[in-house]
Protein backbone atom coordinates (compact mmCIF):
# COMPACT_ATOMS: atom_id res chain seq x y z
CA UNK A 1 0.00 0.00 0.00
CA UNK A 2 1.43 3.37 -1.00
CA UNK A 3 1.40 6.03 1.73
CA UNK A 4 -1.01 8.89 1.08
CA UNK A 5 1.52 11.53 2.01
CA UNK A 6 4.69 10.13 0.46
CA UNK A 7 4.85 12.42 -2.54
CA UNK A 8 4.09 15.90 -1.12
CA UNK A 9 6.36 15.44 1.88
CA UNK A 10 8.95 13.53 -0.09
CA UNK A 11 9.60 16.35 -2.54
CA UNK A 12 10.46 18.77 0.26
CA UNK A 13 12.57 16.29 2.19
CA UNK A 14 14.60 15.10 -0.77
CA UNK A 15 15.34 18.61 -2.05
CA UNK A 16 16.45 19.77 1.38
CA UNK A 17 18.91 16.94 1.92
CA UNK A 18 20.30 15.93 -1.46
CA UNK A 19 23.18 18.42 -1.26
CA UNK A 20 24.40 16.77 1.95
CA UNK A 21 24.49 13.15 0.76
CA UNK A 22 27.49 11.01 1.74
CA UNK A 23 27.41 8.62 -1.28
CA UNK A 24 27.34 5.55 0.96
CA UNK A 25 24.74 4.06 -1.39
CA UNK A 26 25.71 4.66 -5.02
CA UNK A 27 22.24 3.62 -6.14
CA UNK A 28 20.69 6.23 -3.79
CA UNK A 29 23.25 9.05 -3.54
CA UNK A 30 20.70 11.37 -1.92
CA UNK A 31 20.73 9.30 1.28
CA UNK A 32 23.04 10.27 4.16
CA UNK A 33 22.05 7.88 6.93
CA UNK A 34 23.31 7.71 10.52
CA UNK A 35 26.04 5.15 11.16
CA UNK A 36 25.68 3.19 14.39
CA UNK A 37 28.67 2.91 16.71
CA UNK A 38 28.13 -0.69 17.88
CA UNK A 39 30.15 -1.27 21.05
CA UNK A 40 28.52 -4.63 21.91
CA UNK A 41 27.61 -6.61 18.77
CA UNK A 42 24.41 -8.68 18.83
CA UNK A 43 25.10 -11.67 21.06
CA UNK A 44 24.55 -14.72 18.83
CA UNK A 45 20.98 -16.02 18.97
CA UNK A 46 20.37 -14.53 22.42
CA UNK A 47 18.96 -11.25 21.09
CA UNK A 48 15.33 -11.11 20.05
CA UNK A 49 14.57 -11.38 16.35
CA UNK A 50 13.55 -8.17 14.67
CA UNK A 51 14.72 -4.84 13.34
CA UNK A 52 15.61 -1.61 15.17
CA UNK A 53 13.29 1.39 14.77
CA UNK A 54 14.79 4.78 15.70
CA UNK A 55 14.35 8.48 14.90
CA UNK A 56 17.81 10.04 15.43
CA UNK A 57 18.11 13.82 15.49
CA UNK A 58 20.44 16.54 16.73
CA UNK A 59 20.65 17.11 20.48
CA UNK A 60 19.59 20.32 22.16
CA UNK A 61 22.86 21.19 23.89
CA UNK A 62 25.09 23.85 22.34
CA UNK A 63 27.77 22.36 20.12
CA UNK A 64 25.92 19.13 19.39
CA UNK A 65 25.72 18.00 15.80
CA UNK A 66 23.29 15.42 14.54
CA UNK A 67 22.51 13.31 11.51
CA UNK A 68 22.54 15.06 8.16
CA UNK A 69 19.08 13.61 7.57
CA UNK A 70 17.17 13.27 10.86
CA UNK A 71 14.05 11.17 10.72
CA UNK A 72 12.72 7.62 10.86
CA UNK A 73 15.03 4.68 10.17
CA UNK A 74 14.78 0.90 10.24
CA UNK A 75 18.20 -0.66 10.86
CA UNK A 76 19.61 -4.17 11.33
CA UNK A 77 21.71 -5.26 14.30
CA UNK A 78 24.86 -4.93 12.20
CA UNK A 79 24.04 -1.29 11.40
CA UNK A 80 22.91 -1.90 7.83
CA UNK A 81 20.02 0.22 6.60
CA UNK A 82 16.68 -1.47 5.87
CA UNK A 83 14.53 1.62 5.27
CA UNK A 84 14.98 5.40 5.41
CA UNK A 85 12.13 7.83 6.00
CA UNK A 86 13.83 10.43 3.80
CA UNK A 87 11.32 11.29 1.09
CA UNK A 88 8.36 10.06 3.13
CA UNK A 89 8.42 12.63 5.92
CA UNK A 90 10.61 15.63 6.62
CA UNK A 91 12.98 15.94 9.56
CA UNK A 92 12.38 15.14 13.20
CA UNK A 93 9.98 12.42 14.30
CA UNK A 94 9.18 10.35 17.39
CA UNK A 95 7.51 7.11 18.48
CA UNK A 96 8.36 5.34 15.22
CA UNK A 97 7.42 1.67 15.06
CA UNK A 98 5.03 -0.82 13.41
CA UNK A 99 1.43 -0.59 14.58
CA UNK A 100 -1.66 -2.69 13.95
CA UNK A 101 -4.78 -0.80 12.93
CA UNK A 102 -7.98 -2.37 11.68
CA UNK A 103 -6.26 -5.74 11.45
CA UNK A 104 -3.41 -4.49 9.24
CA UNK A 105 0.15 -3.49 10.08
CA UNK A 106 1.42 0.02 9.33
CA UNK A 107 4.36 2.22 10.23
CA UNK A 108 3.55 5.16 12.45
CA UNK A 109 5.51 8.21 13.59
CA UNK A 110 4.80 11.49 15.37
CA UNK A 111 5.67 14.60 13.36
CA UNK A 112 3.61 17.44 14.79
CA UNK A 113 0.61 15.27 14.00
CA UNK A 114 0.44 11.53 14.51
CA UNK A 115 1.07 10.05 11.10
CA UNK A 116 0.44 6.37 10.45
CA UNK A 117 1.69 6.70 6.83
CA UNK A 118 -1.86 5.92 5.74
CA UNK A 119 -3.66 8.50 7.83
CA UNK A 120 -3.13 11.36 10.27
CA UNK A 121 -4.45 11.22 13.84
CA UNK A 122 -5.25 14.58 15.45
CA UNK A 123 -6.44 15.47 18.93
CA UNK A 124 -10.05 16.51 19.41
CA UNK A 125 -11.55 19.38 21.43
CA UNK A 126 -9.14 21.80 19.69
CA UNK A 127 -6.22 20.39 21.68
CA UNK A 128 -2.59 20.27 20.66
CA UNK A 129 -1.08 16.81 20.48
CA UNK A 130 2.27 15.89 22.03
CA UNK A 131 5.08 13.60 20.89
CA UNK A 132 5.27 12.03 24.32
CA UNK A 133 2.60 9.41 23.82
CA UNK A 134 0.85 7.56 21.01
CA UNK A 135 -0.52 4.07 21.55
CA UNK A 136 -3.06 2.21 19.43
CA UNK A 137 -5.66 0.42 21.59
CA UNK A 138 -7.31 -2.77 20.29
CA UNK A 139 -6.38 -1.82 16.74
CA UNK A 140 -9.15 0.80 16.51
CA UNK A 141 -8.49 3.75 18.83
CA UNK A 142 -5.40 5.78 19.76
CA UNK A 143 -4.34 6.99 23.19
CA UNK A 144 -2.57 10.34 22.77
CA UNK A 145 -1.15 12.99 25.09
CA UNK A 146 -2.63 16.50 25.01
CA UNK A 147 -0.65 19.17 26.93
CA UNK A 148 -2.98 21.95 28.11
CA UNK A 149 -1.55 25.39 29.10
CA UNK A 150 -3.29 26.92 32.14
CA UNK A 151 -2.99 30.21 34.04
CA UNK A 152 -3.00 29.51 37.78
CA UNK A 153 -1.04 30.56 40.85
CA UNK A 154 2.11 28.48 41.21
CA UNK A 155 2.82 29.64 44.77
CA UNK A 156 1.55 26.36 46.32
CA UNK A 157 4.40 24.58 44.50
CA UNK A 158 7.16 27.11 45.21
CA UNK A 159 6.49 29.52 42.34
CA UNK A 160 6.71 33.30 42.53
CA UNK A 161 3.91 35.82 41.99
CA UNK A 162 5.16 36.34 38.43
CA UNK A 163 4.95 32.66 37.57
CA UNK A 164 1.40 32.01 36.39
CA UNK A 165 1.65 29.48 33.56
CA UNK A 166 1.63 25.71 33.88
CA UNK A 167 1.18 22.94 31.32
CA UNK A 168 -1.44 20.54 32.62
CA UNK A 169 -0.91 16.95 31.52
CA UNK A 170 -3.82 15.46 29.64
CA UNK A 171 -4.70 12.59 27.35
CA UNK A 172 -7.45 11.51 24.99
CA UNK A 173 -8.66 8.25 23.53
CA UNK A 174 -9.54 8.99 19.90
CA UNK A 175 -11.28 6.88 17.27
CA UNK A 176 -8.64 6.67 14.52
CA UNK A 177 -11.14 6.40 11.67
CA UNK A 178 -13.62 9.10 12.71
CA UNK A 179 -11.49 11.34 14.95
CA UNK A 180 -14.17 11.25 17.68
CA UNK A 181 -12.92 11.79 21.24
CA UNK A 182 -14.06 8.80 23.32
CA UNK A 183 -12.45 9.85 26.61
CA UNK A 184 -10.53 12.89 27.85
CA UNK A 185 -8.64 13.52 31.10
CA UNK A 186 -6.69 16.48 32.50
CA UNK A 187 -4.32 16.14 35.45
CA UNK A 188 -5.07 19.46 37.19
CA UNK A 189 -8.71 18.40 37.57
CA UNK A 190 -7.61 15.52 39.79
CA UNK A 191 -4.05 15.86 41.17
CA UNK A 192 -1.39 18.41 42.10
CA UNK A 193 1.75 18.66 39.92
CA UNK A 194 4.22 16.01 41.06
CA UNK A 195 6.58 13.36 39.76
CA UNK A 196 4.49 10.22 40.12
CA UNK A 197 2.57 7.47 38.35
CA UNK A 198 -1.21 7.37 38.44
CA UNK A 199 -3.64 4.64 37.47
CA UNK A 200 -6.76 6.34 36.09
CA UNK A 201 -10.30 4.99 35.80
CA UNK A 202 -10.97 5.00 32.05
CA UNK A 203 -14.65 5.83 32.52
CA UNK A 204 -14.91 8.27 35.42
CA UNK A 205 -11.39 9.73 35.31
CA UNK A 206 -10.89 9.16 39.02
CA UNK A 207 -7.43 8.28 40.35
CA UNK A 208 -7.27 4.62 41.42
CA UNK A 209 -3.76 4.68 42.88
CA UNK A 210 -0.57 6.75 42.94
CA UNK A 211 3.02 5.52 42.93
CA UNK A 212 5.70 7.96 44.09
CA UNK A 213 5.50 11.74 44.27
CA UNK A 214 7.79 14.44 45.62
CA UNK A 215 5.02 15.87 47.80
CA UNK A 216 3.81 12.56 49.18
CA UNK A 217 0.55 10.82 48.45
CA UNK A 218 2.00 7.51 47.24
CA UNK A 219 -0.18 4.49 47.93
CA UNK A 220 2.90 2.27 48.02
CA UNK A 221 6.02 2.22 50.16
CA UNK A 222 9.20 2.59 48.09
CA UNK A 223 12.66 1.65 49.37
CA UNK A 224 15.22 4.45 49.28
CA UNK A 225 17.27 2.59 46.66
CA UNK A 226 14.19 2.21 44.44
CA UNK A 227 13.14 5.88 44.33
CA UNK A 228 12.68 7.19 40.78
CA UNK A 229 12.44 10.65 39.22
CA UNK A 230 11.66 12.40 35.90
CA UNK A 231 10.45 9.07 34.55
CA UNK A 232 9.21 8.23 31.03
CA UNK A 233 7.32 5.56 29.09
CA UNK A 234 5.29 3.88 31.85
CA UNK A 235 3.47 0.74 30.73
CA UNK A 236 1.00 -1.51 32.56
CA UNK A 237 2.27 -5.09 32.26
CA UNK A 238 -0.35 -7.18 34.01
CA UNK A 239 -2.04 -8.16 37.25
CA UNK A 240 -2.58 -11.31 39.30
CA UNK A 241 -5.90 -13.17 39.09
CA UNK A 242 -7.03 -11.84 42.47
CA UNK A 243 -5.94 -8.29 41.61
CA UNK A 244 -3.58 -8.00 44.56
CA UNK A 245 -0.45 -7.67 42.39
CA UNK A 246 0.13 -5.38 39.43
CA UNK A 247 3.27 -4.92 37.33
CA UNK A 248 4.48 -1.86 35.44
CA UNK A 249 7.60 -1.01 33.44
CA UNK A 250 9.12 2.44 33.00
CA UNK A 251 12.29 4.37 32.27
CA UNK A 252 13.78 5.98 35.36
CA UNK A 253 15.65 9.02 34.03
CA UNK A 254 16.86 9.94 37.51
CA UNK A 255 17.81 13.44 36.36
CA UNK A 256 16.38 16.58 34.84
CA UNK A 257 19.68 18.45 34.46
CA UNK A 258 23.27 18.26 35.67
CA UNK A 259 22.26 20.02 38.89
CA UNK A 260 18.81 18.44 39.36
CA UNK A 261 19.19 14.68 39.76
CA UNK A 262 18.81 11.85 42.26
CA UNK A 263 21.59 9.73 40.69
CA UNK A 264 24.23 10.25 37.98
CA UNK A 265 22.90 7.51 35.66
CA UNK A 266 19.55 6.32 34.30
CA UNK A 267 17.85 2.93 34.72
CA UNK A 268 15.30 0.69 33.02
CA UNK A 269 12.76 -0.68 35.51
CA UNK A 270 10.08 -3.32 36.04
CA UNK A 271 8.23 -2.88 39.34
CA UNK A 272 5.57 -4.96 41.10
CA UNK A 273 2.89 -3.25 43.18
CA UNK A 274 1.48 -5.25 46.11
CA UNK A 275 -1.95 -3.94 47.11
CA UNK A 276 -2.04 -6.17 50.19
CA UNK A 277 1.26 -5.07 51.74
CA UNK A 278 1.29 -1.63 50.13
CA UNK A 279 4.88 -2.12 48.95
CA UNK A 280 6.45 -1.49 45.52
CA UNK A 281 9.18 -4.03 44.72
CA UNK A 282 11.69 -3.93 41.88
CA UNK A 283 11.60 -7.06 39.71
CA UNK A 284 14.15 -5.92 37.12
CA UNK A 285 16.46 -2.90 37.24
CA UNK A 286 19.14 -2.39 34.60
CA UNK A 287 21.64 0.44 34.92
CA UNK A 288 22.73 2.32 31.81
CA UNK A 289 25.95 1.10 30.16
CA UNK A 290 28.85 3.54 30.44
CA UNK A 291 26.99 5.42 33.18
CA UNK A 292 24.71 7.16 30.68
CA UNK A 293 22.30 9.74 32.04
CA UNK A 294 19.22 10.51 29.95
CA UNK A 295 17.78 13.74 31.31
CA UNK A 296 14.94 13.65 28.79
CA UNK A 297 13.09 11.11 26.65
CA UNK A 298 13.79 7.30 26.53
CA UNK A 299 11.78 4.07 26.44
CA UNK A 300 11.63 0.53 27.82
CA UNK A 301 10.32 -2.36 25.71
CA UNK A 302 9.75 -5.89 27.04
CA UNK A 303 10.40 -8.37 24.24
CA UNK A 304 8.63 -11.70 23.59
CA UNK A 305 11.70 -13.80 24.54
CA UNK A 306 12.01 -12.08 27.94
CA UNK A 307 14.73 -9.61 26.95
CA UNK A 308 14.40 -5.86 27.34
CA UNK A 309 15.16 -3.28 24.64
CA UNK A 310 16.02 0.18 25.97
CA UNK A 311 16.38 3.48 24.13
CA UNK A 312 18.41 5.92 26.24
CA UNK A 313 16.73 9.05 24.91
CA UNK A 314 18.92 12.13 25.24
CA UNK A 315 21.98 9.93 25.79
CA UNK A 316 21.72 8.66 22.19
CA UNK A 317 22.08 4.89 22.51
CA UNK A 318 20.10 1.64 22.44
CA UNK A 319 20.67 -1.55 24.45
CA UNK A 320 19.19 -5.02 24.59
CA UNK A 321 19.43 -6.77 27.97
CA UNK A 322 18.85 -10.43 28.76
CA UNK A 323 16.32 -11.20 31.49
CA UNK A 324 19.26 -11.55 33.87
CA UNK A 325 20.63 -8.13 32.96
CA UNK A 326 23.46 -9.07 30.57
CA UNK A 327 24.11 -6.55 27.81
CA UNK A 328 23.46 -8.49 24.60
CA UNK A 329 23.62 -5.52 22.23
CA UNK A 330 24.62 -1.88 22.66
CA UNK A 331 25.06 0.87 20.09
CA UNK A 332 25.40 4.62 19.98
CA UNK A 333 23.26 6.26 17.32
CA UNK A 334 26.01 7.99 15.37
CA UNK A 335 29.68 7.08 15.17
CA UNK A 336 31.04 10.49 14.15
CA UNK A 337 32.91 12.17 17.07
CA UNK A 338 31.11 15.49 16.52
CA UNK A 339 27.76 13.68 16.62
CA UNK A 340 28.03 12.29 20.13
CA UNK A 341 24.70 12.37 21.96
CA UNK A 342 22.56 12.15 18.87
CA UNK A 343 19.12 11.58 20.35
CA UNK A 344 16.11 9.40 19.58
CA UNK A 345 12.97 10.11 21.58
CA UNK A 346 12.18 6.40 21.72
CA UNK A 347 13.54 3.27 20.06
CA UNK A 348 12.05 -0.17 19.52
CA UNK A 349 12.79 -3.65 18.24
CA UNK A 350 10.08 -5.24 16.11
CA UNK A 351 9.44 -7.55 13.19
CA UNK A 352 8.41 -5.86 9.97
CA UNK A 353 7.80 -7.26 6.50
CA UNK A 354 6.62 -5.13 3.61
CA UNK A 355 6.76 -4.75 -0.16
CA UNK A 356 8.49 -1.53 -1.31
CA UNK A 357 6.23 0.93 -3.12
CA UNK A 358 9.14 2.15 -5.25
CA UNK A 359 11.08 0.53 -8.07
CA UNK A 360 14.44 -0.99 -7.02
CA UNK A 361 17.41 1.39 -7.27
CA UNK A 362 20.46 -0.28 -8.83
CA UNK A 363 23.89 1.13 -9.67
CA UNK A 364 26.08 -0.70 -12.20
CA UNK A 365 29.73 -0.21 -13.10
CA UNK A 366 31.84 -1.35 -16.02
CA UNK A 367 35.38 -2.51 -15.28
CA UNK A 368 38.02 -0.69 -17.37
TrEMBL record:
Pfam hit, one: Arylsulfotran_2
Q: Which domain of life is it from?
A: Eukaryota
Its recorded name reads Uncharacterized protein
